[in-house]
Amino acid sequence: MAFEKCSSCNAPLSEEGWTKFECPGCGTIIYRCQRCRHQSIPYECKKCGFRGP
Ligand SMILES: [Zn+2]
Ligand SMILES: [Zn+2]
User: Domains of the chain: which residue ranges?
Assistant: First the structure.
């Protein structure tokens, strides 16, 4: 079984604490790992290019 990957750092989401939400621009599901959440690393939607904190 494959893990989803963080949309910011591309790390596999194998640990607890990650989150997912819909891209404000296009509704694509964005995944973020715990590390990127805590460090507020920006994400970029691969579909529409939306960037957010
Ligand atoms: Zn990450
Ligand atoms: Zn998008």
Answer: 1-53
